[in-house]
Design goal:
single chain, 343 residues, alpha/beta, Quinone Oxidoreductase, Chain A, domain 1, Rossmann fold, 7-stranded mixed β-sheet, 6-stranded parallel β-sheet, 24% helix, globular, disordered N terminus
């Protein structure tokens, strides 16, 4: 997907067929009108990168959605948007990897997050950011405040999703909220949920990951130690797994709410026989199930600038782009939370 025409070769971490490789002579991408050429400063390996590497998502091209980088140049698009875009040249930026068309019916009525013609960095129809340079619509970029360093800024997109999920919660009284999952998204979502007037606990599989909740004064339990009493007002499923969703249905009270902010990407574990997902509890107990995705990167930067959320504690390994394939494999390991990659 890297278009020809650049002045120099760049390194790029690609998936081709079933192989993840670091290509060292890819052509530098050329921005189209309205797009920016960005030189990354830091990346984070996302759960989507891991899914693609495992062959659970049909994508071939350059990986990567989460970045902080510097805008090298912007190709003018014409119109009023160019003035704002020009102000980003040379700026340190983060951005949303979701690239809406801006012209369809959904985009025109304020639903660009659901654009049917959207591309997405490293996922659909557009090369990702795991390269020495990549292109992205300039309108997707937000300048990073100087108070937010690269280690924190690279979490902006993931944090935006956690904030968006919390904004969907309607608080009445002091509800009981369980966040399922002790990965990056679960631990961030729990921190944001704890800012609400609610009793929040995190449930996961890894004691060492859950231990981070101590410093945030969050209740936390291993799955094996939690009773299935169907007494939680809200369950936020951050696992993206059949087991997680089935637990959510057993934890939530009748007429409660399940929020899903991670894709249910595979119903059956590798090698396990296929079996249908039993959704009868949703009907029998009148449970509301709601999806949640995306969010405001600018709002996330505000949280990071105010230092009201701890993201640095989630960093468990640092690697280089030259070790890109190994970085993706490392992120698959259960002991890792967030693997950062430098160019």
């Amino acid at each position: 997907m890297l278009p020809p025409g650049g002045a120099a070769d760049v390194r790029a971490l690609r998936r081709d067929g079933s192989t993840i490789t670091l290509v060292k002579d890819a052509p530098e991408p050329t921005p189209r009108p309205g797009e920016a050429l960005v030189r990354p400063l830091r990346f984070a390996v996302s759960s989507m990168d891991v899914e693609i590497a495992r062959g659970l998502a049909a994508y071939e091209g350059v990986l990567g959605q989460e970045f902080v980088g510097v805008v090298e140049r912007i190709e003018p698009a014409g119109g009023g948007a160019d003035e704002r875009a020009a102000s980003l040249k040379g700026a340190r930026v983060v951005g949303s990897p979701w690239c809406a068309c801006g012209e369809c019916h959904d985009c025109r009525r304020g639903l660009s997050g659901h654009c049917k013609h959207a591309t997405m960095l490293g996922v659909r129809g557009r090369d990702g950011c795991f390269a020495d340079a990549f292109v992205i619509p300039a309108r997707n970029l937000v300048a990073v405040p100087e108070q937010v360093d690269d280690d924190r800024a690279v979490f902006a997109w993931l944090l935006a999703g956690a904030i968006h999920t919390a904004q969907q919660v309607r608080i009445e009284g002091k509800p009981y909220i369980t966040v399922l999952g002790d990965g990056r998204l679960g631990l961030l979502t729990a921190q944001i949920m704890a800012r609400l007037n609610a009793s929040v606990r995190v449930v996961g599989l890894h004691e060492d990951k859950l231990a981070r909740c101590e410093k945030w004064r969050l209740k936390h339990r291993l799955v094996r130690d939690v009773g299935e009493r169907a007494d939680q007002d809200i369950v936020v499923d951050c696992t993206g797994t059949r087991d997680g969703f089935e637990l959510a249905m057993r934890y939530v009270r009748p007429k409660g709410v399940i929020l899903m902010n991670s894709r249910l990407s595979h119903l059956n574990a590798a090698g396990a026989p296929e079996r249908p997902l039993d959704l009868r509890p949703i009907v029998e107990h009148e449970i509301t199930v709601s999806g949640s995705r995306g969010g405001s990167v600018a709002e996330a930067l505000g949280f990071l600038r105010s230092d009201v959320v701890d993201v640095v504690s989630l960093i468990t390994r640092r690697m280089r782009l030259d070790d890109g394939p190994e970085a993706v494999r490392a992120a698959e390991q259960p002991e890792q939370i967030c693997v950062l990659v430098d160019p």
